[in-house]
Every structure is written in structure tokens, then in C-alpha cells.
């Protein structure tokens, strides 16, 4: 009897292990289809969701990786030729697409408070601000993020993990997805956040010039520098408007500035940065000592930092030092990705904070929500780990030219518009450098009517703040409506 029980136990163990192995296998192609509805601006919007995987192929047609995606289609729209399609990426590099998926444009959003702080129980609620009323959306997880994985272990990692290789294989994947879903006639948009802006800026050029897929719009959410040169005086001076915004938020400025609205302060600081600070910093050591002191005094006025600290850093205070210094006397730090968030370090001394209080707050809300959502709402069952941040290093950052590539795509395509969305309290990809991107992409001023900027009183993920979630989605909604040409409107200059 004991032998029989032991044999049965071993069989059950073997079955369990075999089942676990099967469930952990990466399937090149899979899908789970569900239906739902969401109310947006008082209107019922029914939709179909396809959550699944689709391969990346090599030149010989061999599957070398598979990408997880979630595709939302409005089901009460019959004419797909006129229905816009939005392809959404997050950044990192190495970040899954869950951030904008579960907090910004999708039909569900995180369970958080109005300022973006996590609430328990973790989970999701319907998103009344989703853009699904005006466009279908597909959220894509690049290789090794989310549930996306490499299939062929002999394929060099450089095939996926680098600025230009990332752009190349993802553009090919999007082309295949659009073909499979029969969406070539649809107006098409790319949206990327953070490093995702580097990705979609390059993809706009790659899709247009290698796959002959012309876009109507690219949306850059909290954009990177896009490979545009900004060394020397520019790199040090351009953070001043961000410092002013953050210091104003934490009431660290003098009463005359604190009594003004942020919209009054920022144009003043931006003008000072362009007209006074950049030329002064360009002089370097030749700057007159008295002028240097006057500038340090003005910078202290705009930042709440001491003149001594500013002079010690030769007018160029590093962001890492600012996050530690601004509220040091209160024993607090401020966040990098959203400087509204406050943290505490083990000691008040030091040159930089111990951790980013914004990012750590977000991580423990997004992870359980995505795992719950995939299993219970999307009905996508897997034992794979959803990688919020996946192993994608080393990442080849050489030969980046994405800002110029996006500009070139715009020059070639009269339909193509670009909108930038930035949070004033984002210290990772600050709003003034985002404006600087637009100026450098169009140095002759020929495309200013197709370059659009929107700013918000929040940080890197501006949509985590309830007020900005509504406003920023409405800005996307209007951008899509305004950049979808009417019948018979030709693409010509």
C-alpha cells in the first residue's frame, strides 16, 4: 500500500512539473478574445479585446521572438478605413507597455487616488477618459518586457537590444500586425512614453521609408532628448524652468513668486533661461565675477536654493543634487520622475537621494494591477512573469538620430503631425528640454503648424493625476480628430 501511494505521489509530482513546464513555455502565437464596454464622455463604447502573442521573424522566416500585445477594437464601428489606429509603447528601454495601458488611454485604469498615490485593494476600475471612443489601440511589449520573450537563444541579443535594432524589428512587427488586422487604410498613430519616444520617433521614419507606411501623427509623452545635441551651456541651463516649477510646488520660493500662478512664472523663467542664462554659461570661466554673482542670485530666486550652492556648482546644479538639496532642511527628498512626491533617506547628508520616491510608489501599484488584469479581465492565463522592467542590457545607444529621423519623416509627409505632452514636475525628461526638441527638429520654422506642445501640472506620468488624466486624454482625442484629413484632402504642400 505504501509503495502504491509513493508511486501515485511521484506520478502526481511528475504531472505537476510537466504541466508547469508547459504553462511556462513561450508560445509564438496565442490569443484570448474577450468583450467589454466602457462609458466615455457619457457615451457607451462596446469593444473587443485580443490579448495574445505574435512572432518576430528573422530574414529566413524563422520565429526568433514573440511579442505580447493587447488590442482593443470598438465593435459598433463598421468602417475601419476611417477608424484611427493607435500603436502604443512605453520606454525604459526594458519597460512593458502596462503604464499607459492601465493608467492612461485604455478602457481600464489603476485604482489610485486623485494625485496618483496607490490605494488598496490593488486593482483597476473603468476609465471614463479612454481614447477608445475615437481610436482603436494596440499596446505592444518589446522583447523581454511584459510577457514577450526571445524564442531562439542563438539569436544575438543585439538583434533586439539597441536603439536602431529596436526600431527595425518593432517596425517590421507593426507592419505585420497592421496587415493581419487589415488596417492599412486606417489613419495610423504612434504614441510612446519616455524612451518610447525615442522608439516611435525612429519608427515613424522606418515605417515610412522601409515599409511605406505613412502616419498621421506621433505623440511623444515625456520625451527623451531624441539624440539632439545639447551639451555645454545648454545642458546646464535648460533645467532652470523645471527647478522653478518644482520649487513653486513645494512652496520654496519667495512670497512674490508663490503668490503668482505657475502659468505666470514659467514664461518668465523660460525667457531668462534663453536670453540670459545660456549666453552667460557659454562664457564659462570668462564670465565677469559680478555678473556671475547676479545670475546666481537670480537663480536662487527662481529655485529656492542658496546662492552659495549655485556658485559651488558653477551655475549648473545637477538634477540629482537638486532632488536631495531642495527639502534637505526638512529631512525630505523630492522625486525624479515626479517631483510632487516626497521621500525620506537614512541620512540627510549626501549628494543624491537613496531612491526615487515617485517610481517606488508607482511600482507597487502597477505590478499587482497588471497581474490581476491579465488573468481576470483579459483571460490570458500564463505562469510567465510579467516584466515591468525586463533584462535588455547591454543596450546599444550608439548612432542615435531619432529626432532628425522624425523631422525627416515630417518633411516627406505633409499629413504627419507631432504632439508633445510633458509634466512640469518631471525631472527625468523635463518639459523645457521637450520644447527644445521641437525647436531643433524644425530650425527653419517650416513645420511649426504641425508641432504641438501640451504641459500639465504633474510629472513623468502626467495621467496619474486625475485632473491631468482627463485633460491629457482630451488633448490626444482632439489631436487625432484634427489630424485625420477629411475626404478628398490631398497630402501636398
TrEMBL record:
InterPro entries given in the database record: Peptidase_S10
Keywords attached to this entry: Carboxypeptidase, Glycoprotein, Hydrolase, Protease, Signal
Organism in which the protein naturally occurs: Arthrospiribacter ruber
What is this protein's name?
Carboxypeptidase
Q: Name one GO biological process term.
A: proteolysis
Q: Name one Pfam family in it.
A: Peptidase_S10
Named from the GO MF annotations, one term is: serine-type carboxypeptidase activity
- The signal peptide here is 1-20
Amino acid at each position: 500500500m505504501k509503495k502504491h501511494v509513493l508511486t501515485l505521489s511521484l506520478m502526481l509530482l511528475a504531472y505537476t512539473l510537466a504541466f508547469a513546464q508547459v504553462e511556462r513555455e513561450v508560445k509564438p502565437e496565442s490569443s484570448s478574445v474577450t468583450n467589454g464596454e466602457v462609458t466615455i464622455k457619457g457615451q457607451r463604447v462596446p469593444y473587443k479585446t485580443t490579448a495574445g502573442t505574435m512572432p518576430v521573424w528573422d530574414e529566413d522566416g524563422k520565429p526568433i521572438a514573440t511579442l505580447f500585445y493587447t488590442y482593443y477594437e470598438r465593435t459598433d464601428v463598421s468602417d475601419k478605413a476611417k477608424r484611427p489606429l493607435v500603436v502604443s509603447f512605453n520606454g525604459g528601454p526594458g519597460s512593458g507597455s502596462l503604464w499607459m495601458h492601465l493608467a492612461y488611454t485604455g478602457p481600464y485604469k489603476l485604482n489610485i487616488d486623485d494625485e496618483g498615490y496607490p490605494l488598496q485593494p490593488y486593482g483597476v476600475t473603468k476609465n471614463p477618459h479612454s481614447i477608445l471612443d475615437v481610436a482603436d489601440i494596440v499596446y505592444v511589449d518589446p522583447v523581454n518586457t511584459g510577457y514577450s520573450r526571445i524564442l531562439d537563444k542563438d539569436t544575438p541579443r543585439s538583434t533586439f537590444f539597441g536603439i536602431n535594432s529596436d526600431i527595425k524589428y518593432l517596425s517590421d512587427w507593426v507592419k505585420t500586425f497592421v496587415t493581419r488586422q487589415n488596417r492599412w487604410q486606417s489613419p495610423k498613430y504612434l504614441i510612446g512614453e519616455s524612451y518610447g519616444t525615442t522608439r516611435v520617433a525612429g519608427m515613424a521614419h522606418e515605417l515610412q521609408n522601409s515599409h511605406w507606411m505613412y502616419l498621421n501623427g506621433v505623440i511623444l509623452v515625456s520625451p527623451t532628448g531624441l539624440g539632439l545635441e545639447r551639451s555645454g551651456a545648454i545642458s546646464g541651463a535648460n533645467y532652470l524652468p523645471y527647478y522653478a516649477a518644482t520649487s513653486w510646488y513645494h512652496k520654496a520660493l519667495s512670497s512674490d513668486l508663490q503668490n503668482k500662478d505657475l502659468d505666470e512664472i514659467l514664461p518668465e523663467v523660460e525667457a531668462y533661461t534663453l536670453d540670459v542664462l545660456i549666453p552667460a554659461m557659454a562664457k564659462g570661466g570668462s564670465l565677469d565675477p559680478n555678473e556671475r554673482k547676479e545670475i546666481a542670485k537670480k537663480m536662487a530666486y527662481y529655485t529656492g536654493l542658496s546662492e552659495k550652492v549655485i556658485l559651488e556648482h558653477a551655475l549648473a546644479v545637477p538634477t540629482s543634487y537638486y532632488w536631495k538639496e531642495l527639502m534637505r532642511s526638512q529631512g525630505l527628498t523630492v522625486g525624479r520622475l515626479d517631483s510632487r512626491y516626497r521621500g525620506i533617506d537614512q541620512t540627510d547628508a549626501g549628494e543624491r537621494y537613496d531612491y526615487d520616491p515617485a517610481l517606488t510608489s508607482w511600482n507597487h501599484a502597477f505590478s499587482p494591477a497588471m497581474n490581476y488584469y491579465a488573468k481576470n479581465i483579459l483571460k490570458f492565463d500564463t505562469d510567465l512573469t510579467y516584466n515591468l522592467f525586463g533584462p535588455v542590457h547591454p543596450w546599444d545607444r550608439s548612432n542615435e538620430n531619432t529626432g532628425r529621423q522624425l523631422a525627416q519623416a515630417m518633411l516627406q509627409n505633409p499629413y504627419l503631425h507631432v504632439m508633445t505632452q510633458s509634466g512640469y514636475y518631471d525631472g527625468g525628461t523635463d518639459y523645457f528640454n521637450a520644447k527644445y526638441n521641437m525647436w531643433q527638429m524644425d530650425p527653419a520654422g517650416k513645420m511649426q503648424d504641425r508641432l504641438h506642445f501640451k504641459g500639465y501640472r504633474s510629472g513623468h506620468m502626467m495621467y496619474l493625476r486625475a485632473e491631468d488624466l482627463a485633460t491629457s486624454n482630451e488633448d490626444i482625442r482632439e489631436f487625432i480628430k484634427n489630424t485625420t484629413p477629411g475626404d478628398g484632402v490631398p497630402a501636398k504642400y
